[in-house]
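Lay summary

Proteins are chains of building blocks that fold into shapes. Our project writes down both the chain and a compact code for its shape. Here are two examples, one after the other.
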Amino acid sequence: MKVETTPVDQHQVTLTIEVPADDVAKGIKEAVARLAQQVNIPGFRKGKAPRKILEAHFGKEVVLGEAEELLVNRFYDRALRDQDLVPVTQADIDMVTFAEGQDMTFKATFVKKPDVKLGDYKGLTVAHKHTEVSDDMVEEQLQAMAKQHAKLVAVEDAELANGDVAMIDFAGKVDGKAFDGGEGKSYPLEIGSGSFIPGFEEQLVGHKAGDEVIVKVTFPDAYFVQELAGKEAEFTVTVIDVKRRELPALDDDFAKAASSFATMDELRKAAKQSLQNRVTNQEMEQYHNALIQQAVENAEVDIPDTMVESRIDQMLEELKLNLESRNMKLDDYLTHAKSSIEKLRETYRDTALKNVRTDTVLEAVCKEEGIEVTSNDMNMEIYQMAQNFDADPREVLKIIQKEGRLPMLAQTVARRKAAALIIQSAAHTHHDGEAADDANAEEPAKKPAKKIAKKATAKKAADDAATETKSE
């Protein structure tokens, strides 16, 4: 095999590949054997029909076409390995010569993965923030816990204000006619929550239980019910009750009711430790991300537009799947957000470029350092994925193999190992052990309860793995 590489532009190359006649003959013979396995011809065992019979059955063009496809795929892959090139687009194949008994020549044009000139990625120094949790931060968390355990109490002769809950009956009309979803009985509406049509809640402020209020609003132009979008509506609202949250006292009784602790001092101490763990872990993650981004910024690489567009496609697909899991459609989401696919693509562009650039640099670090993904690495990754979703690791592996995702998963694992190398070789690296142990400390916000397992299928675990490899 002879291969000649010709640059088309900064990112695109053309490989001219010459396949010897002997290999062409072998390819034709193999194509005949493959076709013979696909048909049952009377008088011949399956797979044993000679070429002349197959050509009579399929046509000579089909036999040679099968051989051409087989040879192109095989020698294109060999040429990529020979030239150490990784395509990021499907190749355009141009057949130059293909005839039995002659050398075969074809051209493959594609966009290649860009070259990376690595800068410093070891011994990096970036700021690492350390925040000590204050008593005020702890009290803020305890107040949030108290709000979760607050009781709604009806207040006589009280005027509605932001934060109050109005128990209301309402009936709405558009163009003088009632509409679906426009009526409700004993509906609890928190004033200021923004859960109703803009302008609705504000018109109830200052009213008391027993008041009847005429509320006039206009549905947003991007309202998800197309028949109501932009329409003026009038609601007759009756305020049944005005309720306010009654916060419990932060005492030992509250500690017992809201957590597994017997005293408020124990709860406060545990809350502070839990909050400190959370803050420390967040700041450690920020520190690690900053190290990775520093290594990326130190590198020189020009990312092809096609790689960015491909990543945007993946991000849009992930959004679509996420919306579908909540019984929503992408078109409805775009209408509600007053956006379009084109605008959304532009919104995603900077993030997509950053993600592709990071992945490309980490892959270059893998190559530079000779980082390899072992079978043990893959087994641990699949086991962890299965654990996260309470699935059988064997089933997860089977699905990943069936859908051809093992190479993508291996790339993800390799990039993680490269990231770990950058972090571990930083000029000032902190030990994660204590933070990891502290992360398992008891969370005081809830009473002890039976652990609710994440019941998900092996398919869900495998799908999430695919999402991670695409969006990381």
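And here is the second example, written the same way.
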Amino acid sequence: MKNNIPWANFHDQLHQAFGKSLKCADDLYFNVIKRREIGEIIHLEDLESLKFLQELHRMRGELCIITDYCYEKKCGPFLVEADEITDFVGGFKSRYGEAFYSTDVIIISFAEKLIWVLFHEGICWLSRG
């Protein structure tokens, strides 16, 4: 399993970096610098969902990743290095027993103050803090 950070630490970092709190993915729709309409999502393969996010902006350094798994298992967000994200996402289902993308995926770079969101309504966006 990749490292996870406790939810309390995540919320503190989010507030420090962006001045925001997170109750749902909608809360991260601010300072949008890039947006893409995918259309109604029936099903996305995990690596396809990652591709949509990566097309918004290059990912670098340590990334904080939130999937439904993080909420369901109360494990907190994953910490993954950008150069390992493809392997992480590609092996997610076999490692954790569920798809990487099921409703929303959030990826945050606290260092670069960027937030990637793949929203369940078929929209992905990039916010800058």
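What can we say about the second shape? The first strand starts at residue 3 and ends at 4.
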